[in-house]
Amino acid sequence: MIPQNESPRPALVCLPTYNERDNVEPITAAILAATPEVDVLVIDDSSPDGTGVLADAIAAREPRVKVLHRADKEGLGKAYLAGFAWALARGYPLILEMDADFSHDPRYLPEMLRKARDADLVLGSRNVKGGGTVNWGVGRKLLSRGGSFYARTILGIPVRDLTGGFKCFRREVLEAIDLPTVQCSGYAFQIELTYRTIRKGFRVVEVPIVFEDRRVGQSKMSRRIVLEAITKVWSIRRTRLPETP
Fold this sequence. Notes:
The protein is an alpha/beta fold. It has one domain: Spore Coat Polysaccharide Biosynthesis Protein SpsA, Chain A, CATH 3.90.550. It starts with 10 loop residues before the first strand and ends in an 8-residue tail after the last helix. It is globular, with a radius of gyration of 17 Å. It is built from 9 helices and 9 strands. Strand 1 (11-17), helix 1 (21-34) and strand 2 (38-44) form a beta-alpha-beta unit. Residues 1-5 have low confidence and may be disordered. The longest helix has 18 residues, at 138-155.
C-alpha cells in the first residue's frame, strides 16, 4: 500500500493474472523497463499455479510492483474493476490495463502515456493503420474485426477496435463512468467501458499496436467468448448512465 504521505507515480498498470506463473516475472520486468514512471499492480485471482506467491516475492524486492489478491476467479472484468478501485483510492492520475501474457507489448506504453496528455482514453488498436495481429488465422481475424464492426455500428461510435484490452484511462474517466454499475465481463467489458467513456463526452484516441498471441501458456480467448461479447452489445446500448454533476 502507498503511504498516505507519499505521492503515487504518474501511472499504474493493472495486470490481472490467473495461472501466469511463467509470465508474471518477465512481463513486470518489461513494463518497469519500458516506463520508469509507472507502478504495476498484479491482480491475482488465487491462481493455483502459485502466480500470486511469485508476485509477492517480486513485490518484496521491487517497490514499484504491488499485488492485490482476490479470493475467487470471477472473470477479467471483475479483476479490472478491483484494480481500478485500488488505483483510484491511491490517487494515480493515469490507470492502464493490459494482458500479462505479452500479447500486449510493453514497448507501446510510452506512446500511450504520451497520447494521454491530450486524450482521456487511449486505446491500443489492432484495427487502425499501423496496427495488426501476429499468428492469427483468417477465421480469428474475421471474428475480431467483424465483432468490432458490429459493435460500433450498433452503438454508433467510431472506435475501430472495441474489444481490445490495452488501454490508458485518465482517472477522471473512471470516476465518471459509474464503475459499480458495469454489467459485463470478458470482451464485452472492454466494449462497455469504451462506450460509457464516449457517452460521457470524453475524448478517445486509438494508437496502433501489433497484437501477438501469448508466448507461454494457453490462450483464454475462445470463439464463444467473443460471440458472447457481441450478443451483449444491445444491453450495453440500453444502459442508462447517471447524469454528470
